[in-house]
Structure formats: structure tokens, C-alpha cells
Amino acid sequence: MFSKACEYGIKASIFIALNSYHGKRVSLKAIAKEVASPEAFTAKILQDLVRHDIINSVKGAHGGFEIEKNDISSIKLEHIVRAIDGDKIYSGCGLGLQTCDENHPCPVHDKFVDIRNGLKQMLETTNLEELALDIKSGISFLKT
């Protein structure tokens, strides 16, 4: 459903949020290791997140990536998905066809509309704070 870059971006954002709660910045190397992504690929993803004001990048010896504590609860998954994948998840065909709409539907068009609407609602209502706190409390996990 999401691109690999988007999956890594969501996991990286959660990891950064977790560390930001403790006032820690995290390095590119630590993030890449945590999300099991190559460093160069992770760097590009993080650049997109910085460019879209989702995370902050601090240069220097004590630099790294962080999210302002006060901002963690206002960052929705939808912001991350749009920053990396754009809005194609809201309008794309469930089978990946170039032309698929109500006038020219693919075989799963009508069923996929409901799934897409549910996904949209989840992305718009789920924030980084609740995900980070679920991981911190042991309710959910970021690694397998």
C-alpha cells in the first residue's frame, strides 16, 4: 500500500519522536539501523521529511534529527505519507491501472473505495505521539 520509502519514513519519524521525548537527537546512522534501511536511502527520506517541516535536522557535533516535543502530537501519519508518496494513495487505482474511475472502473474499484476511505481516516486521525507512546509502553513494536 505504501512505498518502501514511506514505510521507512513512518518508522523513522516514530523513532525520532520516541527519542525527542527524552530530549535526544538521533543520527542518520542510528535511524537507518533502527528502520533497517540503507543510510543513503534513509538520508533522502529524512531530507523529504525536513523539507516538509515534519522533522528537524541539526548540524554539528551534537546534531542529528529531532522533533519539537510540542509538535509530536500534531504530526499526523497523513503528513508523512503526503511528504513521501504524495496523494496517490487517495486517488490511485487498487490494481495500479493508469485509468480507473467511476466511469471506467477496474474489477476492484468499488471495493477499494471503502478501503481507501478507511485508510484516509486512519492516516488523518493517527498522530506520532500516540504511536510513540504505544511503543514506549510496550503495546506495540517498531521492530520484529
TrEMBL record:
Alphabetized GO MF terms: DNA-binding transcription factor activity
Name of the protein: Rrf2 family transcriptional regulator
Domain of life: Bacteria
GO cellular component, one term: cytosol
Pfam family name, one: Rrf2
Gene3D superfamilies: Winged helix-like DNA-binding domain superfamily/Winged helix DNA-binding domain
SUPFAM superfamilies: Winged helix' DNA-binding domain
PROSITE patterns according to UniProt: HTH_RRF2_2
Organism: Bizionia argentinensis JUB59
